[in-house]
Design goal:
Blueprint: H1 9-17, H2 23-41, E1 44-47, H3 49-64, E2 76-80, H4 107-114, E3 118-123, H5 155-162, E4 168-173, H6 179-185, E5 188-191, E6 211-216, H7 219-229, E7 259-263, H8 267-270, H9 273-288, E8 292-296, H10 304-327, H11 334-341, H12 348-369, E9 374-378, E10 391-394, E11 397-400, H13 401-406, H14 411-415, E12 419-426, E13 432-439, H15 444-456
Parallel strand pairs: 2-3, 2-4, 7-8, 7-9
Antiparallel strand pairs: 1-3, 4-6, 5-6, 5-12, 9-13, 10-11, 12-13
Helix pairs in contact: 2-3, 5-6, 7-15, 10-11, 10-12
Amino acid sequence: MQDLCFLSIAELAPQIQRREVSPLEVTRAYLDRIQAVDGQLNSYISLTAERALEDAKAAETAIQAGTYRGPLHGIPLAHKDIVATKGIKTTCSSRVLKDALPDYDGAVIERLQAAGSVLLGKLNMNEFATIIPSPHFGPVNNPWNLEHSPGGSSSGSGAAVAAGLCAGSLGTDTGGSIRIPAAFCGTVGLKASHGRISLYGVTPLAWSLDHIGPLTRTVKDAALMLHALAGYDRRDVVSSQTPVVDYTAKLTGEVSGLRLGVPTRFFPDSTDPEVQSAFEQAVQVLAGLGARIEDVELPALDRVWPDIAEVLLNAEANVWHEPYLQSQADDYGPKVRRFLERGKPTLATDYVKARHAQARFRQDMLDRFGRLDALLTPGELIPAPRHDARSATIKGREVKLMSALISATCPFNVTGQPALSVPCGFTRSGLPLALQIVGKAFDEATVLQIGHAYEVHTDWHTRRPTLPA
């Protein structure tokens, strides 16, 4: 049964369609594996076993009757506990919402249900999608090394997909919270363009930076999930009416002639040597497939967090949390409470300046892209740190952990561009490493094309962590 839990969605879907394996069989396999190994990871907050079996039975009945909805029909998924699920607790991994029971589904849940997916449960995360694990529900462990972080804030999503505890998952990303867990756990993580997937029903951290997207085992799986998730939603004020395309159409394994930029500054000086080596080898793989590799100088990245993202996040997060901070302040974890209270004194002038700087940075990044089809960077500057780490040493320099974690990812929350993390190697100690592929706004298709081509010519994505039952 364990092998079923490590099949990709793209591998599993045809077997379900041909009735070679039933959704009930697959769902029971996942439930058994969750029971066997999640005690080591703490990736689930709510396991909805009864609901999952009902969903699986409904999918099986429909498929047997000749009604097949597509590649997500009967596929067991689990989602970050920040997305509203009707009648199922949505806690944001905080005591503040520990008993919150929404009476509606978020837009992404609606779309995945319409596609016929099975809901296994809700996954652990950093409290309210901040940088801090929940003191109430506890931290998630990295399945490759339990003493190391799986990344945040979508920590449960990254760990559960990597460990075979769901076939795919949803995460949210305000400064890197899909891509960081993907990089640290050896999975694929896609931050779609800002406005590509509806955020209706997602508890916000910072509305101008928040994104949502899938974490999966393969790039094709991410494309399949994106196809179900993408599209305009009038209930989301940032939702875009840009047409949805077939995100699998360009997954040919070919990238010949594509122009891919490699930054000449910042990343080479700020990246762990093992990460940099794996990145350079990944670039060579794509060059060997006929991609045209070009040096590109990016706008100043070291000021993106303090000058833009930090100001926006602090102010917007504080506005949303202010009622809870007034009525339930003691229910927050102490560090999260201090983090959220930092935005209260933000001046309107500072916020406006940050928004203006955001617009300038977006335009600068667009100008630097020029004729490029995509940008390549390391997925993360460092491998997954230990749980107790507070800083990282990069080329002999001590760097604050926060800076090391978000420097490769946060700039593309500010610009709203699509960004994909794919596995590209391992450290000598066995921790995953990742390649990040950044595209032009709403050009997820090309980003996925490049990631898929790299993936089919390497085998990093096929490796599995060892977790004794």
